[in-house]
Amino acid sequence: MLERVAQVQPDGCALWWRDTALDSGEPVQLTYAQLLARSHAVASQLQTTHGIAQGDRVSWLGLNHPAQIILLFALARLGATLVPLNHRLSPAEWRAVMADCTPALLVHDNHLAPASIALARSSGVPSLAADALASERPAPLPGQPQPDNAWHTPALLVYTSGTTGLPKAAVHTQGNLLSNMAIAAQSQAMGASDTVLTVLPLFHVGGLCIQTLPALSVGATVLLHARFDAGATLAAIENERPTLTLQVPATLKALYEHPRWPAADLSSLRAVWAGSSVLPTAALSGFHDRGIPVCNVYGSTETGPFSVALPPDHAKSHAGTCGWPGGGVEVKLCDASGTTVSQGEVGEICIRAPNVAERYWPDLPAVDPEGFFHSGDLALQAGDGSFTVVGRSKDMIISGGENIYPAEIESALLAHPLVSECAVIAQADPRWGEVAVAVVVLAAGNTAGEGWAAPLQSHLQERLARYKQPRRWLAVEALPKTALGKVQKGALKALLATDPPAV
């Protein structure tokens, strides 16, 4: 794929990288010809100097860096696999991942050099600095897997965030990645004239696979920041004029609340894409009011993750939904027995597509015998075919015999200006079996004084059936989250056991 793009536009800018972790970081630019040459040279170095062969794994620990992308292409050339480590994890968690996937080498950037060297030493794995990777000097090209085998050859191991247990690594083959690039590029109408701003971490499939790799597959330019910074992101939109960017609820909120927001020139953006089932209402309206559609992407680590997408022309009319399946993606909603539910009924999202990982490392099935991945997310499908996520199957609350879906309540609460963040969880109740408890982070400038929840209760009374409304409320300073920003509802339930809601 990279060779094809480099042949068509060798001098086109592939990567424009700024180390936003350093105030004085100078940008680095790579053309497609240079990216191809670097990946070939690194493949040769890995093979001849470090003995990396087909089937081996190489870990990466660092902030966003061109070296990680070069490594992915270089290892694919060898039939080897990249394992990006979440740099937000603890050393103990890194060691557990290293013990699980047994990499032959750990490559790191300068920011995380001390931690990486210590990790490599404790794991018994050699380490290599990104600066020591081969330059684009000519090098003999190593052998590579035959095309038929390459399609099924693992290229990327991505560990899940572990919200419900120990992390597992989804095994993405070269075929999975190429299929995801095609689905994502088509859904976002990407072309060589696009410039994509990547600020989310590449250790996750969201940052790597929703826009970054799809952009490279069509010859677009990727503006890569080492990490997210709201001011740097707004400055890049004004000065480098990207046409697309990917955000998550927390970064959308940070952009909208930044002092630079009101005056920032965002006119180059034809769309902002966001990976989430529930988006913050204020930030969503802030972008829409300026003529920039915010488009949702639904997926998971195992599904590519580009599965269901809300396109720009429906961003306003279908706000709150996840949209429609991408090209070649099959989605069905199933009950607990695996039977497809009737129209209008809630069911678990099950996905079958060429970008879905079929197994977890080393050889655990990730899909059912028919090839469907069972997401654990519950959704409704409207008559027009669009999907709306209503919660996780394990998060569903059964109160007095009625099913309550937390995402529906959370979405309604986020529409109130008093609410910055929220989560709805179940708490045991002797009368109802379970009741809904709303855990709320109040917007800046508000305190949880007497009667603080009253306006929120009134707000929900106008929008939700009585049985769906929270019976108890708790105000907190922050929600516990995983390293990928997912709310840890298990930790909230533990909090309720020691600190019951005062309202």
From TrEMBL:
Gene3D superfamilies: 3.30.300.30, N-terminal domain of ligase-like. Keywords: Ligase. It comes from the Bacteria. Residues 3-361 form the AMP-dependent synthetase/ligase domain. Coiled coil: none annotated. Pfam families: AMP-binding (PF00501), AMP-binding_C (PF13193). The keyword Ligase applies. Residues 408-486 form the AMP-binding enzyme C-terminal domain. Belongs to the ATP-dependent AMP-binding enzyme family. This is Long-chain fatty acid--CoA ligase. It comes from Hydrogenophaga crassostreae. The lineage of its organism: Bacteria, Pseudomonadati, Pseudomonadota, Betaproteobacteria, Burkholderiales.
